Structure formats: C-alpha cells, structure tokens
Amino acid sequence: MRKLQLLFISLLAVCSIYGQNAKMDAFVNNLMGKMTLEEKLGQLNLSSGNIGAVLGGSEGMEDLIRKGQIGATGGYTPEAVRKVQIAAQQSRLKIPVLIGVDVIHGYKTAFPIPLGLACTWDLGMIEKSARIAAIEASASGICWTYSPMVDIARDPRWGRVAEGAGEDPWWGAQVAKAMVHGYQGDDLSKDNTIMACVKHFALYGAAEAGRDYNTVDMSRLAMYQDYLPPYKAAFDAGAGSAMSSFNVIDGVPATGNKWLLTDLLRKQWGFKGFVVTDYTAINEMSAHGIGDLQAVSALALKAGTDMDMQGLGYITTLKKSLAEGKVTIADINTSCRRILEAKYKLGLFDDAFRYLKEDRFKNEILTKENIQFAREIAARSFVLLKNSNQILPLKKSGKIAVVGPLADNKADLLGCWSTGDQNKVVSVVQGIRNAVASGTEVVYAKGANITDDPYLKERIKNPFAAYMGIKEEVEPRTSAELLTEAIEVAKTADVVVVVLGESSSMSGEAASRSEIGIPESQENLLKALVATGKPVVLVLVNGRPLTLNWENEHVNALLEAWAPGIEGGNAIADVLFGDYNPSGKITMTFPRSVGQIPIYYNHRNTGRPMDQKNKFTSKYLDIPNEPLFPFGYGLSFTTFGYSDISLSKNTLKGNETLTAKVTVTNTGKFAGEEVVQLYISDPVASVARAVKELKGFEKIRLNPGESKEVKFAITPEALKFFNSELKYDWEPGEFVIQVGTNSQDLKQAKCSWVK
Ligand code: BGC
After folding, report:
1. Which domains does the chain have, with CATH numbers?
2. Ligand 1 atom showing the smallest separation from residue 246 Cα
3. Distances (CA, A) of 534 to 397, 526, 528
4. What are the E-state strand segments in 376-446?
5. pLDDT tens, residue by residue, 519-552
6. Which protein residue's CA is at the shortest distance from atom 11 of ligand 1?
C-alpha cells in the first residue's frame, strides 16, 4: 500500500514537472516564433556600460534594451534595475532582462571570503550564508549571481583560491551543493531566490605556476578524479547556469571547447541550463591564437556557449556567420531558447518587477539577524594555527596593544569581490574595544604599511577606485616613525595583538603572487614586536595560505582570520577572548615554502616515497616534504582524544555497509567543537591512487570531560574512482579506514572488500 502511494506521488511529481515543462515549451515556442534574428541575437548578449559607442552608435544602454539588443546586464540598486526592466517593457516583445552580479560571499551583509566559509566545515551555515545573500540581492533587484566558484585549487600563489572551497574534490562538492541550494532555494520563481552560475567551467584553478589566466594542461584522469566533482555536484544540485572559464583545456579555450560544453556538460551530465562566458572570454580566444572575432564567436556558439559576456562578439558577427553558413539558425535558436527558459523559470515573464518591492529593500537588507549571523559564521571560519602555553583566550582586562596595518582597517576585512559597504565594517581594534571590560586599556598603533615595496604597491591599487569614488589613503608618516610608535605602545602593554596579512586586492582575480609570505614591511614590524619580549598574538587577515615559518616559530599564538567580512572585528574579539572557542580547519594546505607548490594532501605516491634514510627517494634536500600545516588542521582551546577505530566487520562483500566508530573525548578545560574527519586509502588498484581521500566528517560539540561516539557508514560508493578507461567503479582489495583531527594525525584500521 505504502509503495503504491509512493508510486502515485512520484507519478504526480513527474506529471507536474512534465506539465510545467510543456507550458514553458509552449510559451517559449510562441515567443520565439515572433522573434527576429536581431532579437534572438540580443538575448545572447550580456552587456553593461557604454556599449552604444562600441557598437558604432551613440545609443545608451536603455535604448539598446528597447531595441531588444541586450538579454542580460548588471545592476546594483533597485532604481537601476527598475530602469532596465522599464526599458525592456518598452521593447517590441517586452522580454525582461536578466540581472546578474557577482554576489560571492554575502551581499550587503558581507560574510567571510569563500575559502573562510569552507573552513567552517558547517554546511548548514554555508547554505544559510548563500540563502541570506540571495534574499538581500533579490531585494535589490538581482536575479542571478556569478557564484559559486567551485574551482579546485592546489596552488596558493593563485589569488583566486580566496573564492573557492580549497583543494579537496569531495569537500568542494559538498560546499558547491550547499551554495546552489542556498541561492536557488526550492523554487527559482520565488521573489527571494536567485539563479546560481557555476564557475569557472572548467579547471580554472589549475593555472600553471598559479599565474592567473595561465595555461591548464591536465590528464583526463586528473580532471575526472580531482577537478570535475564540484562542478558536477553543483549541476546535479540544479544550478541553472554555468560560466565558461578563461583557460584552455586540451589546447582549446573552454569557451570554444565542444567536448567540455556539449559532450561532457550536456550529453554526459545532462545539464539543461545555459552557459555564459567569463568576461570577454570569446574575444580572448583570438589572443589564444584561435582566430578573429568572427571565427571565435562562431566557434563558441557551436561549442555550446549561449551568452557572450561583454565581448559583443555574438551581436556583431553571428549574423554574418549565419549568412556565410558558419553557424546555423538552429545553433542560434538553441542558445536563445535556453536563455528564455531561464527567464521563464525565474518568473520574469510573469512579472519583470517581481524583485523590486520597495519594503523588501528597506526591511530585508543588513537586518539585525543577518549581521548576527555574519558574526557567528566569521568566528567559525577562523583557524587557530598555534596557541603555545594557552596564551589564548586572553583576559578582558589589563592593557592590550592592538597593532598592524590591518588592525584599524575596514576595507580589507571585506576581502575580494565584496558587495559590502566598508563603512559598516567593524575593525579589529573596534571589535576588541567592544568586547573588553570598562577598566581595560586598548591602545592602537598602525606600525607599518601593508607594503613599502613600490612595485607591489602600484599593482595592488584598486583599479576601480576613481570610478567607485574611493580616495587612496596617503600615510603621512615614514615607516620608521610608524615602527617606533608601535614599539613604544607595545612596551607598555601586557599583550600585543598584531593584525597582519594581505590587503583585499592582494587576492582574488589577477592577484597572483610569487612569494606568499607576509610583506616585508609587516615582517619587520612583527620582528620588532617579538623582540620587545611581550607575548605576541598574530591575527592574520588574508586570502590564501601563506608561508609562516618564522611566525610559527616566534609568536605565541597564530589565528588565521581570512577576510572575515562585515562583523570581522567582533568575531575576532569573540575568539581572542574565548567567547567562541575556534573550530575551523583549513581546507587548503599551508606550505613551508613556495618551492613545495603544488602541495596537497591527496597526492599520489611515487615509486620512491620519501625516506629520510635513503637519498634516492622523492624529497627536497633543504626542507621536509611535509607542509607547515596540513589539510584539515586547526586547533581549539580545548584538546580532543580519539579512541582506536572499531570496524563492524573486517571482511565485506558487495554492497554491504561498513560502520567505523571512534569515541572522541574532550580532554581539556573548555567546551568546544571538533571536526572528526574520515579518510580512506586504497593501496592497491589498477591506477595509482591518492595516498588518502576525504570521504566524510562530523562536527561535534563536547563539554569538558564529555565523550561521544562518532559513526561513519561506509558503502562501496566511497571506494569508487576513475580507472584509466574513465570508468567510475571500485576494485576489490584491502582498504585503510582513517579517522582523526586532520589529514595527517589519524587513527587507522584495515578491512578487505570483495565484489
Ligand atoms: C571573473 C568572473 C566574474 C566576471 C564578471 C570575470 O573577470 O573571472 O569570476 O564573474 O568577471 O564580473
């Protein structure tokens, strides 16, 4: 009976989807029947700014929208979006415009950068951060976000590691799903959900030498096993659109790569949404050496790229290519249909002004609850890297010196790609002042500039500063004066909290670095502070793993706070004073030196694994192979003890489920959370496998002395991998199950599994 009921419910669901699709098909067919070629090409065109002049005329954006020449654009205020949609309503067929913006880590309520969000290991909170971003962005008229970025990154020189979830494909896939669900909710046509755009498809994070936009060259096996899973997970979660990446794949730029955009994405994975290019990526195929604008535009369309972002290649050349037989009307129709379908699914044809209800803009942005959530998620994104002699948490009394160029800084706490308002940011020194008791003295000194290197200084200037009306701050004092003041201040204090790292423009797009240490001016400050003999707590604000050997040896505590967002200062104070016990774990390896890069925990073994006693093994002469801080690492104010692993069975067959259990005990004095991590190794297989792979985790909270049993249910699904024929399956044999506090510090137990 129950089964029959279920069958009936599923049938109803299928019929309703079919019914909705049939309605959408009929609507889009009817509309496309009325469209001219020019209007169809207009739908494939995403443009903003003064493009009329580029097109050889004097028409403004709204005139072009009225002529049906723009299918999508940007828009940061409800007024701007309203103007766009009014112009669209004045066009012949009244087709609404898609409004897309880079809403990457919160909208007005700015959350930590995505790499920080990933370090929370809290999928519920990550999803909620995207949900809040969608509510705030939609209240401002936006219906489409160029997020999530799910590029796997193993090279911290690449500035865009700040925008993703780190190096692990399994974790990347979980985060990707959570973000898509957060943005799109359960119904895209609601007025508080927005369409996700999965980017950058694909492999953008593997740019050679970590230099942005550089060549990617990778085996199919590495693609399938290590890089593609997060994209696939995001599409399986229903993401409505994808953005093609700038890089080449097998020598062909992603934007013109038919294997990628049609064979893999649509035929193998069944993606039904539309593909937009990255910014002018069609045009850039000419610099890749693929052909002139007409040739690369035709190539992109035929490959499966539906919308041209800001390049004007489609709108200026496809008509000619059609006349010359280089593309067909069917190619144009297919892309046009996909874009109209996206607008239909968003409900824009029902009401183009659906997001623009005035009370929403007033009531749903920067609410008290959203700001409180920003504080909580920021505190959970921090990773305690060192805490010698339990110097943290600090007492809320005595005299605290807060020093460093990022200590009284607001803009850089927002991080790259922020839509947040820097005036609303709580700086670290402010957060500390808010937290301490009234008798506590908090003294501040800047101590150094972010950098004094003229070459770097020039390159990290915000290129849009003039446009955004931001005035460059000019420091009137010399570096020596800044330093002297800071040392004087430090000498009088009980403890020094020094806030160092990177400005927000030092990570993100076009922000690769060849050295990833703290810039010299700040290093000098740190060395001078350590030399005072005062206890030094280093709080890091930055967008990538850094090399921190000297710091790790000499400071008393190290707290990685990333770019923490609007409530950064309060959240940092929460952790420094123990109001929140840190629980974040890094999702990217911290190397000892740039020479070790690329460095990641799930590497393959060589035929000569490192052996310090044997010279002819795979290692460096000058430094250990191990990273400074491994993937999954992060301390707490308390300590956790792990029992041995107990397995429900040692020999398994077929689709049986293995249960692995450990008991975790809080062995310290503070209540705290621990991310209990599960890794599996497959030591013998038909292809060389990663030494271990993350397959699960549980985040638990324990009071002092409390224990909890953590159980992982493992099925053969977790043993599957791509073999050299790219078949995804598992092979029988022995497996090593590992559970522990980070990717290096693990208990292990073995089992064998036969088919
Ligand atoms: C970036 C994308 C971004 C796009 C639109 C590009 O330069 O690579 O990540 O979504 O610009 O702003």
Report:
1. 370-596 (3.40.50.1700), 640-754 (2.60.40.10)
2. 8
3. 16, 12, 10
4. 383-387, 399-403, 441-445
5. 999 999 999 999 999 999 999 999 999 999 999 9
6. 279
Q: Is 102 in the pocket of ligand 1 (CB under 6 A)?
A: yes
* Residues 417, 508 contacting (CB under 8 angstroms): yes
- What residues form DSSP beta bridges with 241? 197, 274
Q: Phi and psi dihedrals of 731, rounded to 5?
A: -120, 140
Q: Whose CA is nearest to atom 7 of ligand 1?
A: 279
**Structural contact between residues 119 and 559, judged by C-beta atoms closer than 8 angstroms:** no
Angstrom distance (rounded) from CA 639 to CA 397: 25
pLDDT of residue 208: 98
**Alpha carbon nearest to ligand 1 atom 4, residue:** 279
- pLDDT higher than threshold 80 for residue 6: no
The yes-or-no verdict on residue 13 having pLDDT over 60 is no
- For residue 199 and ligand 1, the question of a CB distance below 6 A is answered with yes
Q: How far is the CA of 558 from the centre of ligand 1 (A)?
A: 33
As a whole number of Å, the CA-based R_g of the chain is 27
pLDDT digits (tens, 9 = 90+) for 662-705: 999 999 999 999 999 999 999 999 999 999 999 999 999 999 99
CA distance 108 to 366: 6
pLDDT at position 3, please? 56
Query: Residue 146 C-alpha to ligand 1 middle, in angstroms?
Result: 7
Residue range 428-447, pLDDT digits in tens: 999 999 999 899 999 999 99
- What pLDDT is recorded for position 9? 58
Which residue has 């040392």 as its token pair?
A: 487
Report, as an integer, the average pLDDT of 298-304: 99
Other beta carbons within 10 angstroms of residue 650's beta carbon come to 11
Average pLDDT over residues 69-96: 96
Specify the 3-state DSSP secondary structure of 298.
helix
Phi, psi of 324 (to 5 degrees): -90, 5
Residue having the nearest C-alpha atom to atom 10 of ligand 1 = 146
Q: Give me the amino acid identity at 409.
A: N
Which pLDDT value is given to residue 51? 80
- CB 279 near ligand 1, within 6 Å: yes
* Helix orientation angle between 123-138 and 368-381, rounded to the nearest 10 degrees: 140
Is 278 a catalytic site residue? yes
Residue 151 Cβ < 6 Å to ligand 1: no
> Exposed/middle/buried for 560, CB within 10 Å: 0-12, 13-18, 19+?
buried
Ligand 1 atom having least distance to the Cα of 147: 10
The one catalytic residue in 278, 331, 574, 682 is 278
Closest C-alpha to ligand 1, atom 5? 279
Choice from 275, 278, 310 to test ligand 1 binding pocket (greatest atom count within 8 A of CB):
278
pLDDT of residue 12: 57
Q: 673: Cβ below 6 Å to ligand 1?
A: no
